Amino acid sequence: MSAPAAPPRVLTVAGSDSGGGAGIQADLKTMLALGVHGMSVITAVTAQNSLGVQGAWELPVEAVRAQYRSVVDDVGVQAVKTGMLASAELVEAVAELLAGAGVPVVVDPVGVSKHGDPLLAASALDSVRTKLLPVATVATPNLDETAQLTGVRVESEGQLRDAATAVLAHGPRWVLIKGGHLPGDAVDLLTDGVEEHWLRAPRYDNRHTHGTGCTLASAIAAQLAKGHSVPEAVAAAKRYVTGAIAAGFALGAGIGPVDHGWDLAPGRRGGV
Question: Where does the record place the Pyridoxamine kinase/Phosphomethylpyrimidine kinase domain (predicted)?
Answer without folding.
Answer: 17-259
